[in-house]
Amino acid sequence: MIKSAKEVIESIYQAINNRDIEKAIKWVDNDCIYQDVNFSQAFEGKESVKNLFKESCENVPDDFKFVIDEITTEDPLKVGVLWHVELDNIPIPNGRGVSFYRISETTGKLIFARDIVEPPLKPGKLSFFIIRLVTPLIRRFLKQDSTTEKRQPILSIFFWLLSGTYIYILLCSAPNYILPGEPFWAVQPETIKEVINESINFFFILPLLNIAGIHLMESPIVHPIIEAQFNFAEAWIFMFLPLLLADKRVRKFPKVALWTVAMFLTNVFLSPYMAFRFNQPIPQAIEDHKKGLLDRLFGWIGLIIGIIAIVWIFIGRPEFGDLAQRLQYFITQLNSSRVVIAFSVDLVLFAIFQMILMGAVIPPNSQQRRLRFIPFFGLAFWLII
């Protein structure tokens, strides 16, 4: 007699909790497609699903259990499940999920599954608050009018809030509370080593020298997509120096010192500077910035490193597999590494700051003004041309 979908799924859950992979996999069809939204690609076939079950069991403690909260019973071939995870019979924060399963009519085994796990970051009503704050910022990008002066205090408050939120959530919040990974006060040795290795490979200088056969020092092995993300972010903030110097709204400020520390701690310092900037008087007119050797040098260096970073994602360190494997690794890191999350947030903020600062130094009647809306490359081209 073929079991119902409810019975099959309950049997799989029980086997997984008992770490009995063979018993769990016997209820999986040979042609099963298992989708877990934590992964970029589905697991196709019985053997692939078995590897997923095996890896899941090997990487969690023995007292880590899946608990079914509710399961549907109306359809004998399909079920929806609400579940949560427990550690030593204690529910884990942010450990809930919902799944859908379908059983094969012919084999009575699992033929399709999709798991959706509770996200670690839940802004809730804060997202609506952020939208309301961002609205005047977007209008600031699109047009200038008589109310521009009145918006400045609002924008300053927004960026002060943004700075505080950035520093608290990314640097100070408790481990695996709002975001996965560790805060600076509980950073693990392997995280420190990762950051040091990325820094040693700054601008790909050492890896490229090694590829050229020059081995004065060996490049630390870093996953290419993480290496590329780090250097792309560094190339972008590198190009901000001539842009900051061209901005006449803030005159008496140690911009070179700000840029120097931002090269190491990015938006820990750059976001507060942007908040401070909106409290300064708006210049009466935008003067056309005359670009010199510094601008073009920084533009070319940033552009070259940015292009290398993009190429590096595809072909750098071939031992790390194809693009699909690399993207899957990045998604995994995005769900577990606070360093990777921080650099991803930095790239978004850089795009916003670029629009603001380039809009402040490029005259309204200039064709180059459109470049401010092209992240990274718009800044590079503006510095060069």
Describe the structure using short key phrases.
alpha+beta, 53% helix, 6-stranded mixed β-sheet, 6 strands, 2 domains, elongated, Nuclear Transport Factor 2, Chain: A, 13% strand, 385 residues
Task: Tell me about this structure.
This protein is of the alpha+beta class. It has two domains: 5-117, Nuclear Transport Factor 2, Chain: A, CATH 3.10.450; 140-384, no CATH class. 53% of the residues lie in helices and 13% in strands. It is built from 15 helices and six strands. It has a six-stranded mixed beta sheet with strand order 2-1-6-5-4-3, with helices on one face. Helix 5 runs antiparallel to helix 11, helix 8 (224-238) packs antiparallel against helix 12 and helix 9 (240-246) packs parallel to helix 14 (338-361). The protein is elongated.
Instruction: Provide mean pLDDT, rounded.
Output: 87
Strand order of the largest sheet: 2-1-6-5-4-3
Low-confidence stretches: none
Q: Could you tell me the strand content as a percent range?
A: 5-15%
Largest sheet: 6 strands, mixed
- DSSP, total strands: 6
Number of helices: 15
Order of helices and strands: HHEEHEEEEHHHHHHHHHHHH
Distance between the first and last residues' Cα = 75 Å
Radius of gyration: 26 Å
The chain-level structural class is alpha+beta
In the residues, how many domains can be counted?
2
Which shape, going by the Cα principal axes?
elongated
Which range best describes the helical content: under 10%, 10-25%, 25-40%, 40-55%, 55-70% or over 70%?
40-55%
